[in-house]
Amino acid sequence: MEREIVLEAKGITKRFPGVLANDNVNLTLYKGEILALLGENGAGKSTLMNIIYGLYHRDAGTIILKGREVNFASPREAIHNGIGMVHQHFQLIPVMTVAENVMLGSEVTRGYGLLDVEKAAKQVRELSRQYGLEVDPDALVEDLPVGIQQRVEIIKALYRKADILILDEPTAVLTPQEVRELFKIMRDLASQGVSIIFITHKLKEVLEVADRIVVMRNGHVVGETSPQESTESSLAAMMVGREVLLRVHKEPAKPGEVVLEVSGLTAYDDRGSKAIDGVSFKVRAGEVLGIAGVQGNGQTELVETLTGLRKPHNGRVTVKGKDLTGASPRKVTRAGTAHVPEDRQKYGMVAAYTVADNLVLNTYYAPPFSSSGMVNHKAIEEHARRLVKEFDIRTPSIFTSGGSLSGGNQQKMVVAREFGRKIDLLIAAQPTRGLDVGSIEFIHQRIIEERDAGVAVLLVSAELDEIMSLSDRIAVMYKGQIVATVDASKVTREQLGLLMAGVTEGVLEPEVTAVI
Amino acid sequence: MKSEPTPANRLVGIAKSILDVIAVPILAVITAVVIGSALMFAAGYDPILAYSGLADGAFGDARGIARSLLNMTPLVFAGLSVAFAFKGGLFNIGAEGQLFIGAITAAWVGFAFDLPPYIHMPLALLAGSLAGAFWGAMPGFLKAFTGAHEVITTIMFNFIAINLTSWLISAGGENMPPGPLSDPIGRQHALARTPNILDSAKLPVLVEAPGRDIHLGVVLALVVAAIIWFLVWRTTFGFELRMVGLNPSAARYAGVNVAMTTILTMAIAGGLAGMAGAVQTLGVNHRFESNQSIGYGFDSIAVALLGQTHPLGVVLAAFLFGSMNAGTTRMQRWSDVSSEIILVVQALILMFVAADQIIRYIYRIRPRRPEEVQQLSAGWGQR
Ligand SMILES: Nc1ncnc2c1ncn2[C@@H]1O[C@H](COP(=O)(O)OP(=O)(O)OP(=O)(O)O)[C@@H](O)[C@H]1O
Ligand SMILES: [Mg+2]
Known about the structure:
The complex is a heterodimer of chains A (516) and B (383).
Chain A: E1 5-16, E2 19-30, E3 34-39, H1 45-52, E4 60-65, E5 68-70, H2 75-80, E6 83-86, H3 98-103, H4 117-131, H5 146-159, E7 164-168, H6 176-191, E8 195-199, H7 203-209, E9 212-217, E10 220-225, H8 232-240, E11 258-268, E12 274-284, E13 288-292, H9 299-306, E14 314-319, E15 322-323, H10 329-334, E16 337-340, H11 344-348, H12 355-358, E17 370-371, E18 374-375, H13 377-390, H14 407-419, E19 425-429, H15 437-452, E20 456-460, H16 464-470, E21 473-478, E22 481-487, H17 493-500
Parallel strand pairs in A: 3-8, 3-9, 6-7, 7-8, 13-20, 13-21, 16-19, 19-20
Antiparallel strand pairs in A: 1-2, 1-4, 4-5, 9-10, 11-12, 11-14, 14-15, 17-18, 21-22
Chain B: H1 7-42, H2 47-59, H3 62-87, H4 95-112, H5 117-146, H6 150-168, H7 184-188, E1 205-207, E2 214-215, H8 216-234, H9 236-246, H10 248-253, H11 258-285, H12 296-306, H13 311-335, H14 340-354, H15 356-362
Antiparallel strand pairs in B: 1-2
Helix pairs in contact in B: 1-14, 2-3, 2-13, 3-8, 3-11, 3-12, 3-13, 4-5, 4-6, 4-11, 4-12, 5-6, 5-11, 8-9, 8-13, 9-11, 12-13, 12-14, 14-15
């Protein structure tokens, strides 16, 4: 069967200061297919999509949409021509409601330019019911966890009736359940003739949902394949150009003294409801405690409370015996804690700061980066050069602004900063979100190395695989409480799944439960 | 793909980013001047003659240059005030009020104490700055602890400052006692002003020009601009301040005391505006009169924006505005064009700089990348 080509990009070239982000790239999209776009961090995937979406101007090349050469000056034109895009970094207005955000740019009015928010809210409700993307249209976006914000972005694109849908790492922030739902939506849409370009770093997903796979590296398209003729490791090799270990190798932990002790911790979320409810646990030196749970069950607030970003209501937090309940972030850092925040754009970096400055974002005040109130740029630059090399942050220079790095490289920058100093406690929330397989391998190894060097690690991740392969013990959070703590080597995926859904009766055999 | 840039490459990069920063202000000035010409032309005047008069008045002779420099000086301080606050993410509309408070405090110290010059003058200057700092710190405090938006509170503090100072120097009336700082001699003529400051409190004169003595404040302005540059780009406080301005959440994560930084930023901004007032009092007016400084506080916003909130830019913009004001009289004399036209040109410059999209559209300049653009003012209810 000859398939209809809906979009064709030919010879696309795009140069940024110091980088050739796209170098003569060709890409074809057929009607009703799901095309997976794979590639290392910084390979140029987002850039290519932004060019198609009219957000960036290409330096060379042509784009043919449904047989017609097009030249979009702005996303508005792309949207008008049926191209929708959900970005890697959300483009929502935090102070507006979900419904307002969804209708932004294509507002429903009651005539006379009056907004009809009611009607928009109704439409959002319908869309979310239709596609199983549950969301409250009247909630303020800033109050929503990242996972839900992502759904809003997807609804926003669907609302605009796009027939070409670009999803830039949509699953990075979704729970497995949500991912399954999204895939169902994607398949439904594809069968109705919508063409989807889907960027992800998760090879399992690619094999599960894609019809065709295109791999990019260093600004080039390096290959095309299909799920039938590939495996996870063949895809990984194609992306990175070498064999990648897809599992972490680690020795059993040798837990030492208690480093982090949390007892009876209670805190409220931004909307004033109880987000964590009497949580108690301990993390010892030399072990990884994983926190598993469906997004939105208090993990975000737990990490924020432990790191000083949120005030606890009740309870006690100690690090190496020192009381840090309600301590400021500075105090927490000084006590030897590193924090990889879940939301790297909000907390983890200052987009306009250089890579070098971002790498000392929370240590700038201490020697050698400053002395007697004066910043020592030389030391900061040396430090940056070392970390950029060690963590393979792909940036044209250490003076490039952090915000212009590719998503994965921003994450590496944050991780490098937090891992790059001497610590006793590592609190890592979604540390590998948005990283390519090669970088994930590297970061996982580093986490295990930290553990083996006697660091206590609290790992919060939505990736069940990550939790299971890195953790020594796993605590499952459900509705703000820890419903079970289990031995990671004995528990099964299914058991964890049930626990995360709040089912505790008869799930665990006694020997699986871990002693604290 | 990773290409460590060569020194030459980096120079080109730096040159490009400088060009990117200054392109809009320069084009804004040119565009405003052209539109000003069109207005004059339409009204039947000769724009070339008018601008020649302006230039001659501002730079034609020593007096003109002196006038330009003197006009520039308070604008540098006040422009730095707005620009500095801006770096910390705060929109200081209150330079006007802080300037008034600084000016009257300097006047009071200047006439009420009798001290040797090497103490008196610095003390009066310091007192003016500190009073301005206090006036600026209060909106900072309100922002930090109640979330009250600084745009609103600084406007309110302007009203308070203007009316407070005008009461302090009022000449009184039939049933009204005179203000506590008012001048006994001025009172007899119903003049609202403070007594003259003592000679020991006056800023030393560097270059004498009849009626236009260049005082120490002119040099001080340049020194302070350099200090502010150093503070913002070379100190840990500057690192924190810019972080708070660009991403307050990340600043909190990084352990910055955002509330303290906000208060301190506003205090320093207020201090700079206070210094503007003090320098005017101690260097030019030698007393405080209620209408002496009206407008500087507001021009300072234009200067800060035109100067792209960079200290060097502020100095250049202040010089531009200062010389424009210095040349208006001669412009009017030469060409009969009303001096108000210069206010229109200045307002146009401000508009084009603030709404730089217009300039970028006219001259087809690519917009700067979003992460490099600092918002003019955070929206209501943000942070
Ligand atoms: N706005 C920008 N300004 C300057 N350089 C940029 C900009 N956007 C991307 N780049 C550079 O272009 C290259 C490709 O980036 P891109 O975001 O397309 O990567 P990506 O394949 O999406 O990576 P990731 O998987 O990490 O998201 C990177 O080296 C990045 O630093
Ligand atoms: Mg990307």
